[in-house]
Amino acid sequence: MSTALASAPPVAYPQPDPSDGGEAMPTSVFIDGEAGTTGLQIRDRLAARDDIRLVSVDADRRKDEGARRDAFAAADVAILCLPDDAARQAVTLAGDTRIIDASTAHRVAEGWTYGMPELPGQRARIRDARRVANVGCFATGAISMIRPLVDAGILSPDSAAVLTGVSGYTGGGKSLIAEYEDGTAPAYFLYATGQSHKHVPEIMEYGHLTRKPLFQPSVGAYAQGMAVQLHLHADLLPGQVAGHARIEAALRDFYAGDPFVSVQAAGARVDPQMVNDTNQMVLSVQGDGAGRVTVIAVLDNLGKGASGTAVQNLNLMIGAEETAGLIG
């Protein structure tokens, strides 16, 4: 549905009285930045759902503050798929509308709930939240490995953690996508070599690390899919020697029953694209059996690393099944 919303009033949908057999009205959702990579993927996941009514602004008015303000007012929940500064500005237009922000702007900000449902107690916090900051793609993989090990006492919060990772080029936004599509980008490159990657603050905050980890990300010449690696010397970890079995057991305990995260046996090859177009994340514990361990998380940077988790958070916020609209 597309409308200019020039004078649309706020929409409030009363809940039906179960005694009269009424059905719940759909939740209205405005995707601010729906024409971008993440926005389009979120829209694809919501468009066919009967419990969602999408609120849109006509293409020629997407930068019109008045039209956007009206769209926010007409929505029960807004999802921001914008650069950081634009996301901060959008919050000032949103009024009391509940927000999921897919940018980096609010992930460690006061008053915002971190949108990573797999963390302990986080699903309940997200359900009640007015402002949710969607977890980042590399951060999803990094925290998914670090937090279970910290909580289990296997990894000390002040450990000198070493992370590496590779992502498809869609994680770099429109300009990088254009470079690859016109053939001017290299087949593979490292970036943020000054240890300045924007996901590090949230990795520390929600991985419960007190020492800044080393993190070296990279980009490959494929569109989507990512692998994040945590490199460990097991004999330097606290407690008994923490080899494969102890680390794998901690991960399995942490994610027991989770609808989207699984722990699989180590394999000879790890394909960063193996769970593309799903909301799955696969963890594995690799290494040489002599104390050198690499934990690996594989996910779709556009799915579980962005749009999929945004929909997962939306489902929690509106009381829908957490898996609704998502491919497991």
What would you say this structure looks like, in words?
By secondary structure, this protein is of the alpha/beta class. It has 2 domains: 18-135 and 306-318, Rossmann fold, CATH 3.40.50; 137-301, Dihydrodipicolinate Reductase, domain 2 (2-Layer Sandwich), CATH 3.30.360.10. Helix content is 30%, strand content 21%. The chain has 9 helices and 13 strands. It has helices at 37-46, 65-74, 84-94, 122-128, 137-151, 173-181, 200-207, 244-254, 303-318; strands at 27-32, 52-55, 77-80, 98-101, 113-115, 131-134, 162-168, 188-190, 214-220, 226-233, 261-264, 281-287, 292-299. Strands 8-9-7-10-13-12-11 form a 7-stranded mixed beta sheet. Strands 2-1-3-4-6-5 form a 6-stranded parallel beta sheet, sandwiched between helices. Strand 1, helix 1 and strand 2 (52-55) form a beta-alpha-beta unit. Helix 5 (137-151) runs parallel beside helix 7 (200-207). The longest helix is centred in the C-terminal third of the chain and has 16 residues, at 303-318. It is globular, with a radius of gyration of 20 Å. The model is unreliable at 1-20 (pLDDT under 50).
